[in-house]
Structures are given as C-alpha cells and as structure tokens.
Amino acid sequence: MAEQGLEKQEVAGYNSCVGSRKSNMVIALLRSVSLLATLVATIVMSLNKETKTFVVATIGTNSIKATLTAKFQDNPANIFFVLANGLATLHNMLVLAAMLFGKKIDPKGIRFMAISVLDITNLAILSAGTTGAAFMAQLAKNGNSHAQWNQICDKFESFCSHGGGAILASYIGLALFLILVLISTIKRHHSIQNNTHASV
C-alpha cells in the first residue's frame, strides 16, 4: 500500500512537471508574440510622420501654399500610446530573460510575485494607451461636427494608415498579453493547490 502511494505521488509529480513545462512554453510563446506586436506598434507610431503642401489661397494667377506636417508628437494620446507600447515591450523582454535565467538570480522565486504585479500594471497601461489612441484615430478619420473638429485623414492618408496599423498591432499585443496573464494566474492557482495537497 505504501509503495503504491509513493508510485502515485511520483506519477503525479511527473505529470505536474510535464504540464508545467508545457504551460511555460505556451506563456513564453505568447509573451514573445505580444512583445513583437507591441514593438511593431511602438516603431510604426514613433516613425509616423507625413508632410504635405496645400494651396490655401489664390491671388490672381498666383497660388499661396502652406506646408503642413502631421506627426505623432502633435497628439498627447499618441505619445502615451508609444510610451505604453514601449513599456510593455521592455517588460516582456525582461520577463523572458527572467524566465531563462531567473533560477540563478532568484533561487527563492520572489520574481513570480513581482512578475504578476508588473504584468497586471503593464496590461492596464497598455489598454489605456491603445484605447486613447484608437479614440483619437476615430476622431481624425470622421471628425466631430458637434464640436466643430474637422477630420484630417482625407488630407493625411498615409499618416492615418500607419497609425491604424500601429493601433491594430497594439490590440493584438494587448489581447495576447491578457491571455498570458490569465494562463499565468490559473497556473499559479493550480500550483498553490498542489502545494497545499502535498503538505496535507
């Protein structure tokens, strides 16, 4: 009976170890793709700039022209978007490094609690930055007749197209980030339950 109990514990321990490795691989994959998505969003938006020359008046046969530039720095929501995606990218890079080398620098496993807190914090910041930029993009595309705000996407098509691509990439990164936070939370919950049962 005692030998059977030991065998069951060994099998359970082996299955737990295999399951933990699989979930770690899934989390690492999700984190890597999320990192790439937020990195693309950061680069595309931070380089988003378009300059155009418009005819603003005509005096006789002479045209008066004005050169205008649309750039992401003109809008605080886009600046926050770049910062939020850059922060999420950096966070995921550091967490992936911690997953690879964490046991050497943190044998007690304190990093897991820190990663959980930072995951949720970065998820909230990324969500706010992406939503704010999406709202401003909608305003740039359609304007607001009630507030007398004119659309600009009919004049700066390339700027709006690149901005829309950056926002899409950020939403992909945000969705993957949310999924990996959920998986990490479920994994941690199972780990706590297993430790509790083992101690009993």
TrEMBL record:
Give the superkingdom in one word: Eukaryota
Annotated localization: Cell membrane
Q: What are the GO cellular component annotations?
A: plasma membrane
Q: Which InterPro entries match?
A: CASP/CASPL, CASP_dom, CASPL
Membrane topology category? Multi-pass membrane protein
Span-the-membrane segments of this chain are 28-47, 79-101, 113-137, 164-183
- Tell me where the signal peptide lies: none
Q: What keyword terms does UniProt attach to this protein?
A: Cell membrane, Membrane, Transmembrane, Transmembrane helix
One Pfam family linked to the record: CASP_dom
Occurrences of domain Casparian strip membrane protein (ranges)? 22-175
- Subunit structure comment from the entry: Homodimer and heterodimers.
Q: Which family does it belong to?
A: Belongs to the Casparian strip membrane proteins (CASP) family.
**PANTHER family, alphabetized:** CASP-LIKE PROTEIN 1U1 (PTHR36488:SF8)
**What name goes with this protein?**
CASP-like protein
Q: Which organism is it from?
A: Spinacia oleracea (Spinach)
